[in-house]
Please model this.
Amino acid sequence: MAITISAGWSRSHSHRVNGASSPWFGGVLAVAALFLGGITAPVNASAQDSQPSVGGFQAPVDVDTLGLPGPRQPIFYRHDIHAGQYEISCKYCHFAAEVSQEPGLPTMSTCMGCHLVIGTGNPEVDKVRTAAAEGTPPEWVRIHNLPSYVRFPHMRHVNADVQCQDCHGPVEEMPQVYQYAPLKMGWCLDCHLDREVTTDCTACHY
Ligand code: HEC
Ligand code: HEC
Ligand code: HEC
Ligand code: HEC
Ligand code: HEC
Model:
């Protein structure tokens, strides 16, 4: 079985990073160590034998950024690499998903737990490091946005075991995130009827 190494990385490596809780620093450094383990692991016959026979998802190396759906972001952060290929849990970065109306976006120190060491020489990673060093987080373009008269409690859905992908699509395969579901009232109601959840106007409208 062949293992392809790209820029020092075993592309078929399949560590799963479970959601840790914030504050991040200790956990994140441990995560960085996990990834460094991936880099420095010797590739020899026995290491090859221990590779899982079914490889995980592999993010494409080259993508045509002009052809991607969704808004262009200030840094080309790729969910297909992080959540797909490296299987970093969604909640590792969107840590408020279970407890808040809004899942929230990760801070630069979450990124830097890994990018202090990973990605040297990649101009997009350099932007991450500069943003962290200067204390100027990137202004991510918001993709999903309900009108302000709609109440949407994320945590109620996440805790009821509705998967992120049911509403956001296969984010772990997206080089750039786009709006997958229509987010119209009919879409909400279809699922609520299906799951025997309230369709009372005041549940969703202020
Ligand atoms: C390593 C951190 C990280 C992980 C892991 C991660 N995300 Fe994200 N996510 C981000 C960042 C940064 C953004 C903002 C930039 C962007 O839109 O790509 C974002 C944006 C998003 C958005 C768009 C938010 C908006 O503006 O409407 C969705 C939806 C999302 N992530 C879902 C997921 C899901 C589902 C997973 C797991 C399959 C996941 N994310 C894993 C960091 C992460
Ligand atoms: C758990 C470790 C980890 C965390 C946390 C993490 N990354 Fe990464 N990141 C990686 C790995 C691994 C790669 C792939 C490096 C490679 O293939 O050379 C990568 C690659 C990248 C790249 C280069 C993508 C490309 O085009 O090749 C960017 C940009 C990036 N990350 C941004 C971020 C941002 C922004 C955050 C925080 C929201 C973040 N990363 C958090 C591990 C991490
Ligand atoms: C039942 C559908 C549904 C599920 C399940 C769901 N989302 Fe969302 N998500 C939405 C909607 C709708 C919005 C827009 C909310 C708004 O504008 O108030 C949104 C917005 C977001 C945002 C942008 C808001 C922010 O805080 O910046 C992120 C990030 C996100 N979702 C990530 C996730 C992740 C990660 C999961 C799984 C842990 C998840 N979502 C599960 C429907 C869903
Ligand atoms: C894929 C299925 C699904 C979709 C799509 C969905 N929901 Fe839900 N929603 C649920 C489930 C399941 C619950 C019940 C959670 C519980 O029992 O706590 C729920 C609960 C809720 C609640 C809490 C109701 C209460 O009892 O107080 C609100 C508010 C809500 N959803 C709003 C929305 C809105 C607004 C949308 C569309 C933007 C939406 N939902 C789309 C499945 C869905
Ligand atoms: C499960 C959540 C949910 C429930 C229940 C719900 N709505 Fe909505 N409603 C939404 C969402 C999301 C939007 C915004 C997206 C859209 O325009 O479809 C919306 C939009 C609207 C709008 C503005 C439509 C427009 O075209 O501008 C009206 C009016 C409305 N709802 C009335 C109601 C009434 C009346 C009820 C009760 C019979 C109700 N809604 C129940 C989720 C809900």
Notes: The longest strand covers residues 5-6.
